[in-house]
């Protein structure tokens, strides 16, 4: 199983499951049309509630990452990586705006944040 849950992660369990499945899809670890484990199987393997997995799968389906076929299971849908990239850029833009707003409260300049980003890039 490629999913690891953490009690120290502030995200709810269903979101941890969803985010890790999305990551596996985006990185190609899960291929298009690949069958995901059943809700019950995944819940048993992760030792969490079926309701938690059901919520994660419902969100994945609503966001277009998987398709559920009654009686057959849930399958990975093809994704458009350009659209996904643009969505992530929008999300990062929102996060950066929040960071800039918070920094301004403490008189931290944009240049300081850029310096931090460059340092973090070098650490990667």
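-> sequence recovered:
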């Amino acid at each position: 199983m490629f999913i690891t849950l953490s009690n120290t992660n502030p995200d709810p369990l269903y979101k941890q499951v969803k985010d890790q499945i999305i990551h596996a899809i985006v990185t190609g670890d899960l291929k298009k049309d690949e069958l995901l484990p059943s809700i019950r199987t995944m819940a048993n393997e992760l030792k969490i509630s079926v309701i938690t997995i059901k919520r994660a799968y419902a969100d994945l389906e609503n966001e277009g990452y998987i398709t559920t076929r009654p009686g057959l299971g849930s399958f990975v849908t093809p994704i458009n990586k350009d659209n996904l990239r643009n969505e992530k850029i929008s999300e990062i833009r929102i996060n950066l705006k929040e960071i800039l707003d918070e920094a301004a409260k403490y008189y931290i300049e944009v240049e300081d944040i850029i310096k931090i980003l460059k340092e973090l890039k070098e650490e990667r």
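The two ends are 27 Å apart (CA to CA).
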